[in-house]
Amino acid sequence: MVHNGDKMSEDYIIVTEKLAKTYPGGIKAVKGIDLKIKKGQIYGFLGPNGAGKTTTIKMLSTSIKPTSGTSTIMGYDIIENSMEVRRTIGVVPQDLTTDEDLKGIENLEMVAKFYDMPLNDARKKARELLELVDLTEFGDKYVSTYSGGMRKRLELIVGLIHDPAVLFLDEPTLGLDVQTRTKMWDYIRKIKNEFGMTIVLTSHYLEEVDELADIISIIDHGKIIVTGTSEELKKSLQGDIVEATFASPDQAKVFGAYVNAIDPTFPKENVVRMKVKDSDREVPAIMQYMMKNSLSPTRFNVSKPSLDQVFLDYTGREIREEEAGDTRKMQMNMRRLRR
Amino acid sequence: MSGLIPLTERELKKWYRNPVFFITGLLQPIFWILLFGSSFNLTSVFSGAGAAGTREELAVFGTTSYITFVLGGILTTSSLFTALFSGTSIIFDRRLGNMSRFLVSPIHRSSIVFSKILSTTVRILVQSIILVGAAALIPGGLVLSNGMSLLGVLIIISALIMIAFSFSAIFSIIAIRLKRQETIFGIINLINLPLLFASYALFPSKFFPAWLATVAEYNPVSWSAQAIRYVILNGTLTGSVLQQTMYYMLYLLMLTVFMLVVVYFVSEKEIRD
After folding, report:
1. A260 and A228 assigned to the same domain
2. How many Å separate Cα A89 from the centre of its chain?
3. Residues A123-149 pLDDT 10s
4. What are the φ/ψ torsions at residue A166 (nearest 5 degrees)?
5. Which among B20, B91, B101, B269 is the top mutation candidate for probing chain A, defined by the most A β-carbons within 10 Å of its own β-carbon?
6. Is residue A63 a part of any domain in this protein?
7. Which residues pair with A91 in a beta bridge?
8. Do B6 and A110 touch (CB under 8 A)?
9. Other C-beta atoms within 10 Å of B174: how many?
10. Are A17 and A77 found together in one domain?
């Protein structure tokens, strides 16, 4: 179920080969990653903390050098042409990078100057972006007065000031409450649609990746375990779950003998749970089978697999919350967000 | 160096917008000159002995006003003490996350460090102007009995720039890889007094035992303090005094160029998140 193979290489904005990073002390954070990311996609890395997501993003965004392997972004090598790569990409790191002692607009203007943007263009673009994330009235306020959600929104647009071709978002909603998170998703979708930007996103929130990403790579212990669309990944679990409750155990037994049933189990003697390959196609056949055998269920339920199940299936464990990583910095960020 | 100007602007904004930071920075030189210049008045030791005392005083200090004697030293020390702290903001940038933004931006990594050094130098120049003003205004203060030349003004300004630059550079380099600001505060506390007292900043060389005088000769604080002092005491420099001053300036220049190269290479390679 690996995402469709080699087409023409110019379709791909980011290509990596065996990208790996071993930190001093022998910690193998990333153990050889091969990626092909298409233009205009939102590409999501899903994995627990410490899986290697941030390290991968930091290598691609030239903050740290890979130990081995290569990668190009828009044809620029991340080691040889790191300056060109930095001009091409926008990054929203996990840290809060804006300066609290400056105003929102001053932060944007400062970063624009890093890209040698003329001041007038920078101001215009900054105003546009502030409007995009509903911060228009707050541009002239000091960042120290911002709430956590506003702060994250500002971070998001600082990465966009120079119109990058690719945007990296490292855990864009870490530490935000559910409502603010949903709002951030809207902004991210808006950015994709309005600017046609390729977005690389990391998250350990399943819903976030499911909601936003066109292609998902599940990453754990520094390796990509599986890649595909959310649909493909769920399908790769070999089926949806059908659960039916009958008046009598006999009827349940007959239903359990259905020809396309995969691993039928009986949680109770009158309840059948089975997997079917594709419930959309299978349910009509199941209905016919039930009519033919005069089965009348009292309850009938079909559930498509969630990304939770996909993760569990491929990694053998639940996605862990809050573990490893740079806890000191994370706590600091959380504290600053909570205001 | 597209990062140097915006990053230096940032540093200076953070300085002049923070009232406590700004005002204490400006008050510090005034305290230096008032407290050191007055309560520490070494020339007064000699003044009791009439004409002979004054002669001795002139031989040792070159002036009867201690403030005039010590101004070069205080300008240098106040610059030094400000410069020592310029590395701490690198640690804060890393701790607070601002560094992550700089590292993914298309700027030279050294411009992050150079912006600290440059903004510290600007702050030191502003402090120095206030300090000279305060020294001139207080009773018994600065007396330019031999006038002042354009070359003299240039020497004072460049000596201060070079001291500010070199010491901010040294301490920025130390801070590049440090994770805790406590470490750098410890180093500052360890080094500031030896730097001050093993130099000619506050006392004339005649007061020093031989071994300490040797140390003081190699202390950059002495180079700057002496160069500025010669200018203030003599107005127009000639002969051996001019030569000695130029030697001190040359040492300072060598140190500055050396630090410039070190900062460039170390920060391009070593600065990180």
Report:
1. no
2. 18
3. 999 999 999 999 999 999 999 999 988
4. -130, 140
5. B101
6. yes
7. A168
8. yes
9. 18
10. yes
Please give the residue range of the domain that contains residue A285. 238-304
Sign of CA dihedral B260, B265, B268, B271: negative
Residue A1 lies in a domain: no
- Domain of A246, CATH number, reads 3.30.70.980
Instruction: Please determine, for residue A1, whether its predicted confidence score (pLDDT) is greater than 50.
Output: no
Q: Where are the beta strands (DSSP E) in chain B?
A: none
Sign of CA dihedral A283, A286, A290, A291: positive
B153–chain A Cβ distance below 8 A for any pair = no
Whether A158 and A196 map to the same domain: the answer is yes
Residues A155 and A290 in one domain: no
Query: Could you say which DSSP state residue A221 is in?
Result: T
Taking a contact as any Cβ pair under 8 Å apart, which residues of chain B between 105 and 144 contact chain A? 105-107
Q: CATH number of the domain at A321, please.
A: 3.40.50.300
**Token digits for B188?**
């500052």
Please say if the pLDDT value at position B125 is more than 50: yes
CB contact under 8 A, A114 and B96: no
Residue A4 domain flag: no
State pLDDT tens for residues B188-217: 889 888 888 889 888 888 888 889 888 999
For residues A216 and A244, membership in a common domain is answered with no
Nearest residue to B272 via CA among B83, B114, B88, B113? B113
Whose tokens are 């200090």? That residue is B61
The predicted pLDDT at position B159 comes to: 95
Instruction: Please give the tally of structural domains in chain A.
Output: 2
* B174: nearest Cα among B188, B160, B195: B188
Amino acid at A263: D
Q: Do A101 and B95 touch (CB under 8 A)?
A: no
Please name the amino acid found at residue B83: A
- DSSP of A174-242: TT--HHHHHHHHHHHHHHHHHH--EEEEEES-HHHHHHH-SEEEEEETTEEEEEE-HHHHHHTTT-EEE
Residue A280 near residue A303, CB atoms below 8 Å? no
Which residues in chain A have Cβ-Cβ distances shorter than 8 Å to B101? 91, 93, 97-98, 111, 158
Q: What whole-number distance in Å separates Cα of residue B4 and Cα of residue A83?
A: 16
Per the CB < 8 A criterion, the answer to whether A259 and A290 are in contact is: no
Is the ipTM here above 0.90? no
- With 0-12 / 13-18 / 19 or more C-beta atoms within 10 angstroms meaning exposed / middle / buried, residue B241 is middle
What is the CB neighbour count within 10 angstroms for residue A2?
12
Residue type, A249: P
A223-228, strands of its sheet edge to edge: A89-92, A166-170, A198-203, A42-46, A215-220, A223-228
Å between B62 CA and nearest CA of chain A: 47
For residues A171 and A53, state if they share a domain: yes
A52 shares its domain with A127: yes
A83 touches chain B (CB under 8 A): yes
The per-residue pLDDT for range B86-110, each reduced to its tens digit, is: 888 899 898 888 999 999 999 999 9
- Is the CB of B180 inside 8 Å of chain A's CB atoms? no
Among chain B residues, the shortest Cα distance to A99 is held by B98
8 Å CB contact of A114 and B107: yes
A261 and A291 both lie in a single domain: yes
The answer to the question of residue A43 being in a domain is yes
Nearest to B111 by CA among B230, B21, B9, B27: B9
Helix (H, G, I), strand (E, B) or coil at A218: strand
Per-residue model confidence as pLDDT tens digits over A200-234? 999 888 888 888 999 999 998 889 988 999 888 88
**Has residue B148 got a pLDDT over 50?**
yes
